[in-house]
Write a structure and sequence with these properties.
Elements (H helix, E strand, L loop, with lengths): L1 E9 L4 H16 L4 E8 L6 E8 L2 H8 L2 H14 E10 L11
């Protein structure tokens, strides 16, 4: 499994446009075999900083997303209008454990 970590900040006034675009792109990602899930978090320490985690079955699935036509169209829009900056990191999960408190 791979995790794509995207750290970014949105241009002032473009927050809703970014949320709308992410909603549209999430529909596209959901169509791809190998997309698992996505979550976003807003930093308490750095106002405006958002971190998004998307989970992918393997490199092939993530590569398919990187070549998706709608995603490719969104990239220049993000650079030109939506983001002040972004950092993308891809991490491979080498261990995955979970635990839930019994009822």
């Amino acid at each position: 499994m791979l995790i794509c970590v995207i750290e970014f900040a949105t241009m002032p006034g473009m927050e809703q446009r970014n949320r709308d675009l992410v909603t549209e792109l999430l529909v596209e990602a959901g169509k791809l075999d190998g997309f698992i899930s996505k979550e976003s978090f807003t930093s308490r320490d750095n106002p405006g900083k958002v971190v998004t985690l998307s989970y992918w079955r393997d490199a092939e699935a993530l590569r398919a997303w990187m070549h998706n036509a709608e995603h490719r169209k969104a990239i220049p829009l993000g650079r030109k209008e939506l983001f002040t900056h972004y950092v993308i990191q891809i991490a491979e999960v080498v261990n995955d454990k979970s635990w839930t408190r019994p009822a």
